[in-house]
Amino acid sequence: MHRITSAVKEALTPGKSAKSPLAYDAQHALNAVCPYFTMFPLEFPLAVLRSAPRNAFVADPFCGRGTTIYAARYLGLKSLGIDSSPIAVAIAQAKAVSSTLGRVVRLAESLLQETRKPVLPDSDFWRRAYHRETLSELCRLRDGLAVCSETQTSILLRAILLGVLHGPLSKASDRAGYLSNQMPRTFAPKPDYATRYWRSQRLKPPQLNSINVIRRKAECVLKFIPPKASSVSFIRCGDSRDAESYRYLSRKISHVVTSPHLWVLVHCGKGLESAFVRRPNDQSRRARPDLSASQIPV
After folding, report:
1. Which of 51, 230, 249, 282 is a Cys-bridge partner for 76, taking CB atoms 3.0 to 4.6 Å apart?
2. Considering the chain, what is the average pLDDT of its residues?
3. For the whole model, what pTM was predicted?
4. Among 246, 221, 185, 194, which residue's Cα sits nearest to residue 95?
């Protein structure tokens, strides 16, 4: 216990972590594929788990975007992540899969070609948040992902799309990293506030090619992918207080790395992201609980 406590303190000491913040390390870009609420630094689970034996089974019962899952994978450890938010699960699942830039781009292109154009939302918020052509592409990608076969590539594409859904405007469209009008990248503001801001600043949404934005993000995320030869990860959408969430486990959990759960997060969601991860008939996508990430087709 002393070794773990000392490692955690060292990882979270401001002077120490400032020298090499892993949040900005290109080697760990996959972990930063999309921000989420109450993210703890990657240094924390890495410090806790570095001394774990190779046969350790790590659990995060409130996994959020899956930083613990990523750390376990990076260290070659098996892990379990549970969260009640479909958004969190969609992001966390990406921390356990592998694909290639070509597969991600080809899937996005095929979804755009094969999915019919949807009826677009027409409120003032949506007209100012996205260019109509960009919004059409986003909706087609969302609808296509909702019905296509679940693969490691589709899991990664969904997380990438969540990561580029909104953020700061770029001065040059050929370097744009986000698809929206000016917004924070960590959360989407409330519609009334956002529309007032855009109107007062006379900001218009840029027309962007979603494939180009996806390609740039995928290039960054896939540049360094941790090996997963010895690691197996299970990511589940559910209530960690419910025994059903642990039903398919074949081994005992040896380590738990998590952050204090915020009850309010069970009852709120990131507005744009919530709309993006919903299946037809308003049913959220859930991963099969009896399959690990390594068993999902690429």
Report:
1. 230
2. 84
3. 0.86
4. 221
- Same domain flag for 217 and 234: no
Look at the chain and report how many structural domains it folds into: 2
Q: Give yes or no: residues 217 and 116 share one domain.
A: yes
17 SS3 class: helix
Where residue 206 falls among pLDDT bands split at 50, 70, 90? very high
**Does 273 fall in a domain?**
yes
Residue type, 293: A
DSSP string, 225-285: ----SS--EEEEES-TTSGGGGTT--S---EE------GGGGG---HHHHHHHBPGGG-B-
Residue 245's domain comprises: 2-98+225-293
DSSP state of 32: G
Q: What CATH number does residue 237 fall under?
A: 3.40.50
> Is residue 105 in a domain?
no
Q: Give percent of the chain above pLDDT 90.
A: 59
Phi-psi region of 64 (alpha: psi -120 to 50; beta: other; left: phi over 0): left
- Residues 92, 63: contact at Cβ < 8 Å? yes
